[in-house]
């Protein structure tokens, strides 16, 4: 009888440890997220399932063109691409991104730009026109969706405070035909 009690206790401890590990991983390291909408087309598709790396910015700084997940003002989580880092002056002219006056390539948009026949993919703007600030404020990011015509992003909701960023994401795990790392 004592042996059965001991075995039950061992199984209970193993189960408790497994649940605690799952909770720690889910809330502090990695979390699943579902792409909702077409604002990141053609890079990401509606209903793609991805893994958010919550640990990524705890050890390093965000980089331009990272795809991040953040808490948006509407109490929703958005998935967008970092375009501007703190201190950057952002401008879009003739469908070209300028950061601090330098034209920056966006190769992930090349195919999409070639498909657009009725004007630019990205309407011209300056950061100052949108936000009243010349540069992205310290502790903030300027983000945009890849589907520039149909994305609610920093052009509409302003810069994103770093404390609202959940983490970055680059791995699609579902559907099967989309599995892989995205740039």
UniProtKB/TrEMBL annotation:
CC terms in the record's Gene Ontology section: plasma membrane
SUPFAM superfamilies found in the cross-reference section: LexA/Signal peptidase
Membrane topology reported for the UniProt record: Single-pass type II membrane protein
Principal place of residence: membrane
Key words of the record: Hydrolase, Membrane, Protease, Transmembrane, Transmembrane helix
InterPro entries in alphabetical order: LexA/Signal_pep-like_sf, Pept_S26A_signal_pept_1, Pept_S26A_signal_pept_1_CS, Pept_S26A_signal_pept_1_Lys-AS, Pept_S26A_signal_pept_1_Ser-AS, Peptidase_S26
Transmembrane segments: 14-35
GO annotation terms (biological process): signal peptide processing
Pfam families with a match to the protein in the record: Peptidase_S26
EC numbers: 3.4.21.89
Reaction catalyzed: Cleavage of hydrophobic, N-terminal signal or leader sequences from secreted and periplasmic proteins
Active site location: 39, 80
Domain of life assignment: Bacteria
Compartments where found: Cell membrane; Membrane
GO MF annotation terms: serine-type endopeptidase activity; signal peptidase activity
Peptidase S26 domain residues: 8-174
Family that this chain belongs to: Belongs to the peptidase S26 family.
Alphabetical list of NCBIfam families matching this protein: sigpep_I_bact
Protein's name in the database: Signal peptidase I
Lineage: Bacteria, Bacillati, Bacillota, Bacilli, Bacillales
């Amino acid at each position: 009888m004592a042996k059965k009690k001991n075995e039950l206790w061992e199984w209970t401890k193993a189960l408790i440890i497994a649940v605690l590990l799952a909770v720690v991983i889910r809330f502090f390291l990695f979390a699943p997220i579902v792409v909702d909408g077409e604002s990141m087309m053609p890079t990401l598709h509606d209903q793609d399932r991805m893994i958010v790396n919550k640990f990524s910015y705890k050890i390093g700084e965000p980089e331009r063109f990272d795809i991040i997940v953040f808490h948006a003002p509407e109490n929703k989580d958005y998935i967008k691409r970092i375009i501007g880092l703190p201190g950057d002056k952002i401008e879009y002219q003739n469908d070209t991104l300028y950061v601090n006056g330098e034209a920056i390539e966006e190769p992930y948009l090349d195919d999409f730009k070639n498909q657009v026949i009725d004007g630019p993919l990205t309407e011209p703007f300056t950061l100052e026109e949108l936000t009243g600030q010349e540069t992205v404020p310290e502790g903030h990011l300027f983000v945009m969706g890849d589907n520039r015509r149909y994305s609610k992003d920093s052009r509409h909701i302003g810069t994103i405070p770093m404390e609202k960023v959940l983490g970055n994401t680059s791995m699609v795990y579902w559907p099967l035909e989309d599995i892989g790392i995205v740039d």
